[in-house]
């Protein structure tokens, strides 16, 4: 099936009306034309929300373009292609299959895809297609709660994580900005038993830079808009006075775009009506802009740790019977650390922070490193 057959018919009535100081986005649904444009990023609207506990009266996939188009250009020159919206199937499952087919075509371009709209359980189908053949697949969920109910087999936008982790035996899942009183102790105990990183909202606020390595490790970053506090994002199923500030949300989105690992960035669970439309579409556009700005400033498309731009450090630690290797990019100052594995044919190099490095220099083990070591050592 051709790409155009999987998309809603759409004409470019929004973009390119302004002078060059504005963000410049091409519209195309022809894969040959898209390929010839050599884009740095793809925008894709997605509407399926029938597996949600509530339906939105409006669709962000139809509304975000007007706000995005009004923003100025990114820091560096960028070619962006908007391919419109996925068709909705007659059933929810049919919609998931259509989304998978679109991603199957687009992933051959090997550029980031930004999906706007839909609900978070679609992550399972996104990961199923995008993470094929990835040796150490990682997903990051920025959300106010961990969407897992141990006692239920229901599959919805509030209970999908148990399926996600079965995509691969090495699947890693990261939770950022969760609020502890919104999920059960059973959920936290299960997450900890899998050695998955969890970063509470308070820790994000205390030092947002420390979550950057977790996002940098992720091929897929999903942003549930309920992670943002109600006063900044009033379009939520369950209004919450606590959450990320708008500017923190944009910073996390920028980290995702700047990562050389990013394949898909999703904005999910946006529920709004006419009264909240203006602020919702404005913040949505600004978050997308920050992803694009991060992409525009990427300094590396692939990490070749044998290249001259990386400095290698060997650190001794009394808890371990071998030196631990750190890598530092001499231009960005970003760091990575190697995780020893029992299977010597595999090599896991994990993004880390300078603080992780300092912890090892102090003859301790950083939490980020230890979680991944425990999770993978016997696999």
How would you portray this structure in words?
There is one protein chain. The protein has 379 residues and is of the alpha/beta class. It folds into two domains: 3-296, Arginase, Chain A (3-Layer(aba) Sandwich), CATH 3.40.800; 310-376, no CATH class. It has helices at residues 31-37, 60-69, 92-106, 123-130, 161-164, 185-193, 201-206, 212-216, 246-258, 277-296, 354-361, 367-376; strands at 25-27, 41-45, 80-85, 113-116, 138-142, 172-178, 198-200, 220-224, 264-268, 310-315, 324-329, 335-339, 348-352. The strands form two sheets. The chain has a nine-stranded parallel β-sheet with strand order 1-3-2-4-9-8-5-6-7, sandwiched between helices. It has a four-stranded antiparallel β-sheet with strand order 10-11-12-13. Helix 2 crosses helix 10 (277-296), helix 3 (92-106) packs parallel to helix 4 and helix 9 (246-258) runs parallel beside helix 10. The longest helix has 20 residues, at 277-296. It is globular, with a radius of gyration of 20 Å. It starts with 24 loop residues before the first strand and ends with a helix.
List the SSEs and their pairings.
Elements: E1 25-27, H1 31-37, E2 41-45, H2 60-69, E3 80-85, H3 92-106, E4 113-116, H4 123-130, E5 138-142, H5 161-164, E6 172-178, H6 185-193, E7 198-200, H7 201-206, H8 212-216, E8 220-224, H9 246-258, E9 264-268, H10 277-296, E10 310-315, E11 324-329, E12 335-339, E13 348-352, H11 354-361, H12 367-376
Helix pairs in contact: 2-10, 3-4, 9-10
